[in-house]
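Module 6 notes. Inverse folding takes a fixed backbone as the condition and produces residue identities as the prediction. Think of it as a translation problem where the source language is geometry and the target language is the twenty amino acids. Below is one complete input and output pair. Work through it position by position during the lab.
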């Protein structure tokens, strides 16, 4: 059971990190095409700034959060944690995981409300007189934060298995 959960957490977090990495490559190709077309044909790829801002950057920044949490790569301040050994150290790990997961859960809830508002309004930006829908990008944040909350809880409750790199 525990190994199955480990595999599931690893697959989901790795999958999201992969989508983020694909976003980096897609952004690289998109911006390169924009620059080449602007220089040689004086007709750049339309809406590049908007697509980079509303899609690529969001994917790159927020989807890999669960992956970084699983690996233990998030920023942490361990002023006193290294002094805590045994049971006290374990209680501290659980407490930190619960607080962190709680913050992620609040971020999930808040960003979900924003995403639903943007979805209801069918938010878009105008670029060269063309409406580009941006509401789908708002759903990346609650997905990223929600899975980070789950991974953080899992890592806190099962630290030996959940932190494997």
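Target side of the pair, the amino acids:
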């Amino acid at each position: 059971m525990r190994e199955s959960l480990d595999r599931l957490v690893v697959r989901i977090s790795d999958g999201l990190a992969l989508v983020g990495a694909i976003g980096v490559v897609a952004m690289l190709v998109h911006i390169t095409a924009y620059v080449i077309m602007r220089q040689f044909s004086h007709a750049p790829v339309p809406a590049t700034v908007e697509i980079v801002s509303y899609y690529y950057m969001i994917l790159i920044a927020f989807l890999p959060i669960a992956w970084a949490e699983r690996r233990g790569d998030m920023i942490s301040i361990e002023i006193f944690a290294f002094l805590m050994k045994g049971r006290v150290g374990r209680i501290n790990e659980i407490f930190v995981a619960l607080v962190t997961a709680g913050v992620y859960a609040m971020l999930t809830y808040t960003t979900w409300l924003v995403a639903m508002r943007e979805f209801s309004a069918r938010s878009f930006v105008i670029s060269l007189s063309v409406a580009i829908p941006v509401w789908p990008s708002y759903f990346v944040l609650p997905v990223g934060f929600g899975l980070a909350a789950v991974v953080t809880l899992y890592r806190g409750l099962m630290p030996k298995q959940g932190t494997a790199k």
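Reference fact for the lab report: Helices lie at 2-40, 48-62, 65-71, 86-121, 140-157, 159-162.
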